[in-house]
């Protein structure tokens, strides 16, 4: 079933939820190309993995399809903001590449801090090619 509007899902911040987040996004994007769905699955996997590792007990996944974009946002209650690594990464280190992958693939992405309490929402948008000209941006 293709997404019509916006969906919101609460997921436990446990390793198994990474696959659940991928499935939710894939199901929501069934009307889109396989390549775009694969990109969305990779990016939501990165966000959910970070929420499992650094967030609170629950993550809230929001997926919407509008105005020529597939938009995905993941909220967690973990303190601190994700930081883009600078310089070359040590190839022997197993983590630390997620934001670089996000930056390379997403048309737009950003991080919004909660106005009350700790926590943040990391989001990305992928251009669907339906009536938009992708402009890369991040906030």
In what range is the share of β-strand residues?
25-35%
Would you tell me which CATH topology applies?
Heat Shock Protein 90
The rounded Rg comes to 15 Å
Helix proportion of residues, in percent?
25-40%
Look at the helices and sheets and give the structural class. Answer: alpha+beta
- Going by CATH, the architecture would be 2-Layer Sandwich
Largest sheet properties: 6 strands, mixed
Which assembly state applies to the chains in this document?
Answer: single chain
Question: What would CATH call the homologous superfamily?
Answer: Histidine kinase-like ATPase, C-terminal domain
CATH class: Alpha Beta
Domain module count: 1
Number of helices: 3
Q: Report the mean per-residue pLDDT as an integer.
A: 88
Order of helices and strands: EHHEEHEEE
Order of strands across the main sheet: 1-2-3-5-4-6
The strand count comes to 6
- The dominant shape is globular
Instruction: State the end-to-end distance.
Output: 31 Å
Low-confidence stretches: 132-136
């Amino acid at each position: 079933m293709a997404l019509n509007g916006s969906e919101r899902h609460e997921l436990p911040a446990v390793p198994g939820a990474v696959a659940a987040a991928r499935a939710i996004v894939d199901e929501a994007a069934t009307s889109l190309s396989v390549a775009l769905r694969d990109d969305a699955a990779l990016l939501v996997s990165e966000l959910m993995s970070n929420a499992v590792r650094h967030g609170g007990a629950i993550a809230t996944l929001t997926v919407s399809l509008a105005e020529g974009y597939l938009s995905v946002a993941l909220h967690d209650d973990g303190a601190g903001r994700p930081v883009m690594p600078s310089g070359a990464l040590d190839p022997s280190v197993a983590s630390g590449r997620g934001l670089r992958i996000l930056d390379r693939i997403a048309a737009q992405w950003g991080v919004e801090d909660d106005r009350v309490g700790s926590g943040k929402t990391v989001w990305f948008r992928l251009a669907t090619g339906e009536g938009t000209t992708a402009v890369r941006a991040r906030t």
